[in-house]
Amino acid sequence: MNRRQLGAWARSLLSAVPLLLGATLLAFYLIAQFGPDTRFAQVGRGADAAGLEALARQLDEHRPWLLRYVDTLAGWFRLDFGHAAISGEPVAALLARTLPVSLLALMPGFVLGQLLALGLALAGAWRIGRWPDRLVGALSATSMSLSLIVVLIALQSLFGVWLDWLPVRGWSAAGPVDYLRHVTLPTLVIVVTSLGYQLRFFRTLFVEALSDPPVRTARAYGLPPRRILLGYVLRTALLPISTRILYALPVLLLGGSLVLENHFGIPGVGQVAYEALLAGDEQVLMALVGGGSVLLILLHALSGGLLRALDPRLARPSR
């Protein structure tokens, strides 16, 4: 990596700092002004005013929200993310314990969904207008029309109740068999609900790449389909594909985990976020918002670096 590329990465990261500050400031304001009161989650609704005031001072919630926000940012620079209001556990330890669970539960479905969408989209684009393409179109339309809640309940009822093959709720990764039994349902849900959008996007890219004159010439000369699809078509569409996959990952980790983990009883980041939302836990919620913002910033910088690495024209200085 040369100095010009390093400079582009540095500029990309620096330009995202205002985004990080704006996102965390807005999130902290909304949590502090409109979120649930953490004190009631600890002492209940029957507490008197004096007890609530004492607890507010103990939790450091008696000061203005802007000062608490500044203190939170200062703590981040010291790698101190505070403590969870309900359990008292350090937020860093809480996330370090639950993030691996979320990755184990969600990443198989994410990876399998991307690979399946790529393979089906290549097959449909190669046989455009024929039965593989019509099958891809039907799968895409069906997947996009299904609600996440409908898919959750249907798959739970089928495999967990009627067939009794898989556990309906709970999580265990004590061994390979146990892990497969608990991860199968979340994986199926992620694949079914995400397949349609990815299929349509990838197929559009591949159809466009297959219409290029060099590809039409290669097909006319009888080059093997595998060589054309993998050697040219997939390579040509690699830039938008990599960008879309990179930005789909935080959406799944931050949004999908909130629904899936609570529905299946998986003790991951999504369940922590749900409990923190109910309790109005400022420190946990701010750590999640800040971590999500940093993840998006890093993925944005990584996406830009990939674009410049895969397409040398973008790395050349403009004249």
UniProtKB/TrEMBL annotation:
Gene Ontology biological process terms, A to Z: transmembrane transport
Matches recorded under Pfam families: BPD_transp_1 (PF00528)
Places the protein is found: Cell membrane
InterPro entries, alphabetized: MetI-like, MetI-like_sf
GO CC annotations, alphabetized: plasma membrane
Top-level taxon of the source organism: Bacteria
Family affiliation: Belongs to the binding-protein-dependent transport system permease family.
Name of the featured protein: Peptide/nickel transporter permease protein
Species annotation: Wenzhouxiangella marina
Lineage of source species: Bacteria, Pseudomonadati, Pseudomonadota, Gammaproteobacteria, Chromatiales
